[in-house]
Structure formats: structure tokens, C-alpha cells
Amino acid sequence: MARVLLQILLLFVILYPFQALAEFQRERVAFDMGPEAYSRGMGLYMQHCAACHGLKYFRGPDAQEGIPPGLDPESAQTAFGVVPPDLTLMASARGKGLKGAEYIYDLLTTYYIADGEIRNRAFAEETQTEGAIAMPPPIPMDDPGLPEKARDIAAFLYLVSEPSLEDRSSLGPWVLGFMALITAVLYVLNRYTWKEQKRKLRG
Hints:
By secondary structure, the chain is mainly alpha-helical. It contains eight helices and two strands; from the N terminus they run αααααββααα. A hairpin with a 2-residue loop joins β1 and β2.
């Protein structure tokens, strides 16, 4: 029984990276999580989003205490009818993995006007409503660079919500290698132990 369990564990360790890669490849939008895209996303966020939304828990070289919204809550309430939410954890709150980034991308790129009212398809699917949304399009709907800008902002907000992503990614191969080594050692030890026990029983 122990031998079977060890073989299953070894198989899991070998196949897990391929499964994780397959899940990553199933994501709909190809996000660039590199340093240049991060800088572009932050610049676009400051240009299109920071007037209303804050990043309370974001920490950076020039933002040791987060980034407050440009509008105070009372003014935002008067202008939009609601206080815009803080976006620090928005990507994590909207789904596992890159699902949250995909939602932000969809939200920024699916605005339309119906019956003279601003609506949004992603918001409609999320809230199961007709999509009437208080937030006007942060990026103009006719901006030819809308998809690229939305992708960079979504990637930036995803990285803001996952500040340890780079550390985890670099640590992952070492953890898997350690697990594989431990599994192999335990497997050999198990075989040696039972081989000795069987020899004593026969002897």
C-alpha cells in the first residue's frame, strides 16, 4: 500500500508542472507580467483610474502608504452616486489565477450605450443585470489603443493584488525539486526496509 501511495505522489510531482502550464494556457487573454508592462500599466492606471479609485495597500518606491484616490469619498458619492471601491485586491477578489485580470480587462473593453444609458457587458454578466453601471468608461470607447491599455491596466492590478507572485514563481521549481527528491528517497527507503523485513521472515 505504501509503495502505491509513493508511486502516486511521484506521479503527481512529475505531472503537476504540466497541469499548471495547461491551466495557464487556457486563459483567454495573454497578459504580459514583465517589468515594462508593469510600468506601462501603472502609468495608465494613474492616467485613467487614480482620479476615482485608490490603492490603499499598494507599496512602491514612491508610494509607501498606498495611493489615495484623487476624489474624496463625498465628492465621488455626489458625482457617481456611489463611492468607487479601492482596487488593491480587486483582481484577487474577482477570481482565482488570472480570472480577476480577465474580468478587469473585460470591464474596461465592453462598454456600450443602450437607450441613452452607459452599460457594460462584463458588469451585466457579473451582476446578472442589464449592465447599467455607475462608472463611465475610464478609457474612451473609441480609443484605438483600448485593448492594449486595458490589458496593461489589468496586468498591473493583478500584480498589485499578488505582490508575492514573482517570489512564488521563482520558489516553485525548487519546492517541486525538493518534493521529487524526498519522494525518491522515501521510495528507496521503503523498498529497502521491506526487503530486509521479508528476508528476516524468510530466514
